[in-house]
Specification:
about 240 residues; alpha/beta; Rossmann fold; five-stranded parallel sheet; two-stranded antiparallel ribbon; 7 strands
């Protein structure tokens, strides 16, 4: 009986270790086991990739690019919806049930709909600061693993040019919201990427705009990735 219990214990240990290995990746170059990284993307239509294929959206292109550069990343978890403002993103995160302290990378891009609806900049600042703290909580309190992206200028798109709104006014308002999110991001000690100038290239390059004439194309998102990926690599490697 005692001998049988020893054998059973050994089998259980081996089974557990086998299960653990399934959730890891073996790096043959260093002969070590590497845990894949978990990535959470928070935002609005610019995060889900409205009007482009899922593999073309910003989170998936970023994950693929980082994988090519040596990181191993699980498929991104995206909490975002077209039209969301800061307050709606906060509610969406709460309703999503996504657990805190489980992510190695968090990106945040939010605010265009606050600007589009003419909402208060003071309210935006308050809610954006709250979202920054939520993002920090998701990364096990590792501030260097939070990456904030500036709001692109939708006024530079064909839809923006034909919307009946003055594109110059749109640009000034977008810049004002970006001043706020940059100030709060840097004050919190987080990473900030300014992709807004690249978004304005859509004025002369329509391949940067999706078929709906408003949202970024996969090519535009690739440009954002080129801006953000080096920051992620520097902070995670």
């Amino acid at each position: 009986m005692r001998y049988s219990m020893v054998i059973l214990s050994l089998l259980l240990i081996l089974a557990c270790k086998k299960g653990e290995v399934k959730s890891m990746v073996n790096d043959s170059t260093t002969n070590t086991v590497v845990n894949p990284l978990n990535y959470l993307a928070l935002g609005d239509s610019y995060t889900i990739g409205e009007s482009v294929e899922r593999y073309e959206n910003f989170p998936n292109q970023l994950a693929n690019d980082l994988t090519k550069k040596g990181l191993i990343i699980n498929s991104p978890i995206i909490v975002a919806r077209t039209g969301w403002t800061t307050s709606e993103l906060k509610s969406g995160i709460k309703d999503s049930g996504v657990p805190e302290h489980k992510f190695d990378i968090v990106t945040l891009l939010i605010g265009v709909n606050n600007q589009y609806r003419g909402e208060s900049k003071d309210v935006y600042r308050k809610e954006f600061k709250e979202l920054l703290q939520i993002a920090i909580n998701f990364t096990k309190d590792k501030k260097s693993h939070v990456f904030v992206i500036s709001i692109p200028d939708w006024g530079a798109t064909p839809h923006g040019q034909q919307s009946g709104r003055d594109p110059q006014v749109i640009a000034k308002e977008i810049d004002a919201f970006n001043v706020i999110n940059k100030e709060e991001t840097l004050a919190a000690g987080l990473n900030y990427s300014n992709i807004t100038p690249f978004s304005r290239l859509a004025l002369s390059d329509k391949t940067l705009v999706a078929g709906d004439g408003l949202h970024p194309s996969g090519k535009m998102y690739a440009g954002w990735v080129a801006n953000v990926a080096p920051l992620v690599l520097t902070n995670l490697k």
